[in-house]
Each structure stands twice: as structure tokens, then as C-alpha cells.
Amino acid sequence: MSPVVGIVMGSDSDWPVMEAAAKALDEFEIAYEVDVVSAHRMPREMIAYGEQAADRGLKVIIAGAGGAAHLPGMLASVTPLPVIGVPVPLKHLDGMDSLLSIVQMPAGVPVATVSVGGARNAGLLAARILAAHDEDLLGRMREFQQDLNDQATEKGKRLRAKVEGTAGFGFNSGK
Ligand SMILES: Nc1c(C(=O)O)ncn1[C@@H]1O[C@H](COP(=O)(O)O)[C@@H](O)[C@H]1O
């Protein structure tokens, strides 16, 4: 299967965070590619990646970077594809620098920014974007959401069982 999602990051040091996006796509059997593409360190290659992504068959780009994270926004400036930005937390500033670099895009150049370190949600958001035009994937996303619902309900049951005597006020109580 040729990749439909491009997962790129400013450095291989981002992989421990970005791997969660790949795992989420694996769960939905969505084909992806991974690469290091840095706006700062390899600007020409970064522009080429963004310019060619749609013609190569990619549908969504997930871009993660730490610190002064210009990669997601720069990619969004040269591709018509949706770009999801993942702020990668580094040693200093806890990812706030990266978050603010990615989230405050000027009007006209959107980047869908997830939480600091939120690569799993980036993968799931990519899956939802693809599911909008794929009935089978849409069905699997609904099942995934039902699983989440069931797990949360279970957690409530377990908590109520543990905290005896306070089980009466939760909206799940009585189930
Ligand atoms: N923010 C960017 C960009 C960019 O935005 O183009 N390129 C690399 N980086 C970030 O630099 C951090 C340190 O990289 P190294 O670990 O290679 O020194 C990484 O988090 C990377 O995403």
C-alpha cells in the first residue's frame, strides 16, 4: 500500500514522541511514511517535500518539531494538504516554545495543532480526515469511539466499587 500520511519531524530525536502517531495509524491499518525534514537545517529539501507531497499521493501530513518549531507552518505554506502540527517538548520550556511556534499561524495558512507531545491525537485526527471519504474507515472510527466509551464506563464502575458509599451521585450510578 502506498503511504497516504506523511509523518515528518525536525530530527530523529523527536521520534520517541512522534512514534505514537505511527502507532495510531497502525491501529487503523493506514499506510504512512516517516522521515526527518527540517525547515531550519534542510530548507530546500523541506520545500521539495511539501511541494511534492500531494502529487506523490499523500493526503495528510503530520509534522512534529521541538523548540522554534517552524516545520509544520512552513510545510503548510507550500502544500494544499491538511497539516497537523505536533509540538515536541524539549528539555527547556517544556514544549511551550514549540506549541506557540506552531499554533499561532497567520490567517490563510492553517495548521491543526495538537497538544504538547500529542502525537497519538495527531494520528487519530489524520485517520478522521481520511475517514470523511472512506465508509469503512468511518465505521472503524465509530467502533474505536465506542471502545473508548466502554472503557470510560468501566472505569466509573471500578471507581464506584472502590469508593463505597459515594456511588450514588454519578450519572452512571445504578448501572
Ligand atoms: N524545530 C526544528 C526544526 C524546524 O522547525 O525546522 N528543525 C529541527 N527542529 C528541532 O530541533 C530539535 C533538536 O534537534 P536535535 O535533537 O537534532 O538537536 C528537535 O526537536 C527538532 O524537531
Automatic annotation (TrEMBL):
Keywords: Isomerase, Lyase, Purine biosynthesis. InterPro entries: PurE_ClassI, PurE_dom, PurE_prokaryotes. GO terms for molecular function: 5-(carboxyamino)imidazole ribonucleotide mutase activity; phosphoribosylaminoimidazole carboxylase activity. Catalyzes the conversion of N5-carboxyaminoimidazole ribonucleotide (N5-CAIR) to 4-carboxy-5-aminoimidazole ribonucleotide (CAIR). Belongs to the AIR carboxylase family. Class I subfamily. NCBIfam families: purE. This is N5-carboxyaminoimidazole ribonucleotide mutase. It comes from Streptomyces thermoviolaceus subsp. thermoviolaceus. The lineage of its organism: Bacteria, Bacillati, Actinomycetota, Actinomycetes, Kitasatosporales. The gene is purE.
